[in-house]
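Dear Dr. L.,

I hope this message finds you well. Following up on our conversation about the binding site, I have prepared a predicted three-dimensional model of the protein together with inosine 5'-triphosphate. For your records, I am including the exact sequence and ligand specification that went into the calculation, followed by the structure tokens. Please feel free to forward this to your student if that is useful.
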Amino acid sequence: MAIRFVTGNEGKVREARDYLADLEPVEQIDYDYTEVQSDSLEAIAAHGAREAFEELGSDEPVLVDDAGLFVEALEGFPGPYSAYVEDTVGVERLWRLASEEENRRARFKTVLAYADGEVPRTSDETASEADSGSRAVRVETFEGSVAGTLVAPRGEGGFGYDPIFEYNGQTMAEMSTEEKNAISHRGRALAEFAEWYAGRDQ
Ligand code: ITT
Ligand code: NA
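The resulting structure of the complex is given below.
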């Protein structure tokens, strides 16, 4: 069964497809789930996955990915506001802000939230109760993070903040999708997810 990746970000889909190629096909779905106001990527992603699964109908599972760049010297800014900051001031100006600091360390984090309808029926629930009313939803979350250094923009690959995020001498925009997946926040979260997914319902 295909997994519906609910995101407007094609870069995320490319990475998930590359990573999950042997597991399941990944289909991109454009659905604007409510991004709850929260400092927690996990809360945002879990809420989004539940809502998308409920609203989109069909039994195909959904995946949501909420990510952020946390700059140490800027108290974790832009963190959960990373998409807003990229769209407004942009990556180049965030770099200029960070370049004023002696400490250039930063961390990328992502939370993948997966939702499907496979909830075991509880023992006190009758069959007719289970078949009527709202759908049961199971939500599982998977986290990944990577520590790196902010640098002046380099590289043409990747997306978003990749050109200013350096890991082991290379920016993530200088890496192939496979190289980035091997070390990135998303690659790590995808690894956790793939392991759980392969053993689910056993
Ligand atoms: P969706 O919410 O539709 O999935 P988005 O791009 O808005 O897409 P996020 O809110 O999770 O996604 O993204 C936070 C910001 O971080 C946004 O500006 C992304 O471009 C950026 N970002 C996310 N993952 C990244 C990665 O692996 N490398 C570089 N930048 C990334
Ligand atoms: Na977003």
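In brief: The beta strands are 3-6, 26-29, 62-71, 78-79, 105-116, 138-150, 165-167, 170-171.

With kind regards,
A. P.
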